[in-house]
Design goal:
Helix content: 25-40%
Distance between the termini: 75 Å
Number of domains: 6
C-alpha cells in the first residue's frame, strides 16, 4: 500500500516470522534426525506428515489466541475491565497523599471550601496544635463566617493526623483597598462585564492567586498523572503560585484582562495613599452603588456607565467560577486519567483436531470408544483445551475480590497461584500482607483459603491505608464503626480481626455468660476450678483415644444450635466459668482426648498446656458424641479468641496539651496469640513500623477485668471530646484511664529495641 494510505491492512509475514512454517520445518528436521535413513518418505500423503501439518496448525492457532495483551484476558464478556478487581488502583488512589504540612492543609481547604477568600495555616511545632486563619469574600453574608468555620473544622478533623489537633479557627478581617483607575475598553465590549473582570482579577491576586485545576485540564497541562497529583489529597489540583505581591506584578495581570485596551491611571488606595506592596495582606472594597466607583471607563471618545446589578452578578460569577470545581469532585472523578480499556476475546471455543483429517481416515468423532490413533490425537486436544481453560480462569486467579474466592476452579494449586500474585502486589505497594512471623504463629489453624482471604481483604484497602497511614480518629464524631485510626485498621486487617471501634472485647465472654479464671500461683490446689484427673492409670494408651476432626454446621443457625447443645451436655459450663488455660489451648483439637473410665463410660478431657495435668470436661456413655462435642468446643473457643482481639490507640494530647506526640496503645492479653511473648513482641514491631517515626508511646497488655474498665472510659472519652464544654470531664476520664493502665500485665516501650 502507498505510504500516504493510513488505512488498516494485513502485513505479510516474512518466512522467519511465520510460526507455522517454523514448526513445520522443525518437525521434519527432528523426524529426520530421529529416523535417520529408515524413513525417507516425506510426501504429504504420509499419515505422520498429515498429523504434523494439522497439529502445527492447531498450535499456530493457539499461539494467536495467546498473543493478546493481558488486559484483554481480564476483560469480561461485557467489555469492562476493572483494574481494582485485580489490586491495580487508579492514579487518584495511588499518587494522592494525605495532608501532612500546613501547606498541605491550606491546599485541602482551598479545594474543599469554595467560600474561602484566603486561608493561612500555622502549626505549633511543640504541641502539634493547628491555628487556621481564614479570610472571607467581601460580598459574603454576615453569618457565612460561622458556616465556613464549621467547614474548616469538619475538613480538618476528617483528615487529622495522630497527635495533632485543631487549636482554633480565626476569621481575619483584612484592610480594604479602593480601586482607582481610568482605562479604555475595546469596541463592542460591555463596560460592566469588563469592570467585573478587573475586580475579579484584583481579588484573586490579593488572595494569593490560588488556582484550582479541574481534572479535565490534565490532557492540556502537559503533566503526567503522577505530577498532577503530587502533594494533592484528591483529584482536584490546587496551585499556589509564588507571588511578589507588588503593584507592578498586579498591573501586568490587569493589562491582560479581556476587553482592556489601555490604562491611563491604575492604583489601589488605602486611607488616601497608593499602595505598592501587598504582602501585608489586603482585601478589596466592592462598591454597591455607581457613585462609590472610583473608575472612569472610556470606549473610543465615549465615557461608559456601569450597570451595578450586572457588575455585581458577573463579579460573583467570575470569582466563584474556578473555585466551584471543588464542590463537584465526585462528579468529575476519574476524568482525564486515560482509563484502561480492554477488549473481550472469545477464544475459548475449540474443535478436536481429528475433525481436520481427510475423510479417508474414517475417524470416529463424538464416540466414547476410540482407536489407538484417535486416543493419541486426544492428547493434543487435552493439552490445548487445558491451556485455554487456564486462560479463561485467569481473572479468577488474579482477582482479590471476596466474591471470586468461592468460584470453582480447575486449578489444583489455585491457592498457591493466588498467593504468588498476592506476593507480587505486596512488592508492588511495598507492604507485607503475610509477614513471616505471622505465618509461623498460625496457632489458630488458619487454612490456606482463610489466609488468602485475609490477605486479599488487606490488599483491597492497601492504597487507602498507605495514603492515610498517619490518619487519626475524627474526634467530632462519637460513633466509631467507620472511624478508627488507620493504625488500628492496618493492624486489624493484617491480623484478620474486628477493627470496629464499637466492638468491645472486654464484654465478649460476659456476653456468652462466661467468666475467665486465670491461674494464680498462690491459690491452693483445693480451690482450683479444674477437676484434675488424679488417677494416671486412666491415661494409659489402651484407655485413651485421640479426638478426630468432624465437619460441623457452617450456617449461623446451625452453629447456635450446636453451641446450645454444648452448654447443655458438658458439665464444665454449669458454673459459667472457664479457665484461661482451656480458653486458649482448647482451640487445638490435638489437646483433647477421650478416656475410657470404665467399660461403657467415657470422659472428655483436655490437656492443660500452661499448668500441666488434664481437665475433665464431661462424661457420657456415647463415645462418638464426646468426639463431636470436642469439635464443637474447639470451634467455639476459636471464635471467642478471635472476638477478644483488638487494639486501641489513644492520644493524650487531645486532653492534656502537655503530652504531645505520645500514644497510648492498649491490647488484650488473654487470647492464645496475644498471650505469647514472641507474638506480643512482633505486634510491637508491627505497630512501630506503621506509626509515624516522630511519635513515641507505650503499649499496654491488659487482662480482661482491666480491659472492661478501660473500654468503658475510652467510649465515654470519645463522646466527651465531641463537646468542648466537657473538657474537665475528659481530663477526669483520662486520669481514670491512666490508673487502669497502671494495672497492665505487661508494658512495652514502643521504641524499645530489646
Amino acid at each position: 500500500m502507498g505510504k500516504g494510505n493510513n488505512g488498516p491492512y494485513i502485513r505479510q509475514l516474512a518466512e522467519n516470522e511465520n510460526l507455522y512454517s517454523y514448526l513445520q520445518r522443525q518437525t521434519l528436521e527432528e523426524v529426520h534426525r530421529l529416523s535417520g535413513k529408515v524413513w525417507t518418505d516425506f510426501n504429504a500423503h504420509d499419515p505422520g506428515v498429515t498429523l504434523a501439518d494439522i497439529a502445527n496448525y492447531a498450535l499456530t492457532e493457539m499461539d494467536y489466541k495467546l498473543g493478546f495483551g493481558t488486559m484483554d484476558y481480564l476483560t469480561g464478556e461485557d467489555g469492562i475491565f476493572e483494574p481494582e478487581r485485580f489490586g491495580l488502583f487508579p492514579p487518584e488512589k495511588v499518587y494522592t497523599t494525605a495532608p501532612v504540612t500546613p501547606e498541605d492543609y491550606r491546599r485541602l481547604f482551598f479545594a474543599r471550601i469554595p467560600e474561602l477568600e484566603n486561608v493561612w495555616v500555622e502549626c505549633n511545632a511543640a504541641t502539634g496544635g493547628y491555628t487556621v486563619k481564614i479570610a472571607l469574600p467581601p460580598f459574603e453574608e454576615e453569618d457565612n463566617g460561622k458556616t465556613v468555620v464549621k467547614q474548616v473544622t469538619k475538613n480538618y478533623n476528617s483528615h487529622r493526623n495522630l497527635c495533632e489537633y485543631l487549636d482554633k479557627v480565626i476569621i481575619v478581617r483584612s484592610a480594604e483597598l479602593e480601586f482607582h483607575a481610568e482605562f479604555e475598553i475595546e469596541p463592542g465590549k460591555d463596560a460592566s462585564i469588563v469592570l467585573a473582570r478587573l475586580y475579579g482579577t484584583i481579588l484573586h491576586y490579593l488572595s494569593g492567586g490560588v488556582y484550582i485545576c479541574a481534572p479535565e485540564e490534565l490532557e492540556t497541562s502537559g503533566l503526567s498523572p503522577e505530577e498532577w497529583l503530587e502533594g494533592a489529597e484528591g483529584i482536584v489540583r490546587v496551585v499556589i503560585p509564588m507571588q511578589k505581591n507588588t503593584e507592578y506584578e498586579l498591573y501586568k495581570k490587569l493589562c491582560q484582562v479581556e476587553g482592556i485596551r489601555s490604562f491611563s491611571t491604575c492604583y489601589l488606595m488605602k486611607d488616601g495613599k497608593p499602595q505598592t506592596d501587598f504582602s501585608e495582606g489586603f482585601s478589596l472594597k466592592i462598591p454597591c452603588m455607581e457613585k462609590e466607583l472610583k473608575v472612569r471607563i472610556r470606549q473610543g471618545r465615549s465615557v461608559m456607565g456601569v450597570d451595578m446589578e450586572k457588575f455585581t452578578r458577573y463579579l460573583k460569577t467570575f470569582y466563584y467560577a474556578q473555585k466551584r470545581i471543588s464542590t463537584n469532585e465526585s462528579d468529575v472523578k476519574g476524568i482525564g486519567w486515560g482509563n484502561m480499556v480492554g477488549t473481550y476475546r472469545n477464544i475459548f471455543t475449540y474443535s478436536p483436531i481429528a475433525g481436520e483429517f481427510p475423510a479417508c481416515y474414517r475417524l470416529s468423532l463424538g464416540q466414547e470408544t476410540h482407536a489407538s490413533f484417535e486416543a493419541y490425537l486426544k492428547l493434543y486436544d487435552r493439552t490445548i483445551q487445558q491451556g485455554l481453560e487456564e486462560v479463561k480462569e485467569l481473572p479468577n486467579v488474579l482477582s482479590i475480590e471476596e466474591k471470586d474466592m468461592g468460584r470453582h476452579s480447575s486449578f489444583r494449586n489455585i491457592y498457591a497461584l493466588k498467593s504468588r500474585y498476592l506476593d507480587f502486589l505486596d512488592h508492588l505497594y511495598g507492604v507485607e500482607s503475610q509477614p513471616e512471623w505471622l505465618e509461623e504463629s498460625n496457632c489458630y489453624g488458619e487454612m490456606e483459603s482463610e489466609t488468602i482471604g485475609r490477605r486479599m481483604s488487606f490488599l483491597r484497602h492497601v492504597a487507602y491505608l498507605i495514603k492515610n497511614r498517619a490518619k487519626a480518629r475524627d474526634i467530632t464524631m462519637s460513633e466509631g464503626e467507620h472511624n478508627a485510626p488507620i493504625v488500628k485498621e492496618w493492624f486489624c486487617r493484617l491480623l484478620g480481626i474486628n477493627g470496629n471501634e464499637e466492638h468491645t472485647v472486654g464484654n465478649v465472654l460476659p456476653g456468652h455468660n462466661l467468666q475467665l479464671i486465670e491461674k494464680k500461683p498462690d491459690r491452693p490446689l483445693a480451690d482450683r476450678l479444674d477437676a484434675l484427673l488424679i488417677d494416671e492409670r486412666m491415661l494409659e494408651p489402651e484407655h485413651v483415644t485421640a479426638v478426630t476432626y468432624e465437619q460441623l454446621a457452617t450456617d449461623e443457625e446451625g452453629k447456635r444450635k450446636e453451641y446450645s447443645q454444648l452448654r447443655a451436655e458438658l458439665p464444665i459450663f454449669n458454673r459459667n466459668r472457664i479457665s484461661g488455660d482451656l480458653f486458649r489451648h482448647g482451640i487445638s483439637l490435638g489437646n483433647y482426648r477421650i478416656v475410657e473410665a470404665k467399660k461403657g463410660e467415657y470422659l472428655l478431657v483436655v490437656h492443660n498446656k500452661e499448668k500441666g495435668g488434664w481437665t475433665n470436661l464431661g462424661r457420657t456413655d456415647n463415645k462418638k458424641r464426646l468426639n463431636t462435642l470436642a469439635n464443637i468446643l474447639r470451634r467455639y473457643l476459636l471464635e471467642l479468641n478471635r472476638e477478644c482481639e483488638t487494639v486501641y490507640v489513644l492520644e493524650p494530647v487531645l486532653v492534656r496539651k502537655t503530652e504531645p506526640f505520645r500514644l497510648l496503645i492498649v491490647l488484650p492479653m488473654w487470647t492464645l496469640r496475644f498471650h505469647s511473648p514472641r507474638f506480643r513482641e512482633m505486634c510491637r514491631e508491627l505497630l512501630r513500623s506503621i506509626i509515624p517515626a516522630h511519635l513515641a508511646g507505650r503499649i499496654y497488655w491488659m487482662d480482661e477485668i482491666s480491659m472492661q474498665g478501660f473500654e468503658h472510659c475510652y467510649k465515654l472519652l470519645m463522646r466527651a471530646l465531641t463537646n468542648n464544654d466537657l473538657a474537665d470531664y475528659s481530663a477526669q476520664l483520662l486520669e481514670v484511664i491512666y490508673e487502669l493502665l497502671g494495672k497492665a500485665v505487661e508494658i512495652q516501650i514502643l521504641d524499645d529495641a530489646n
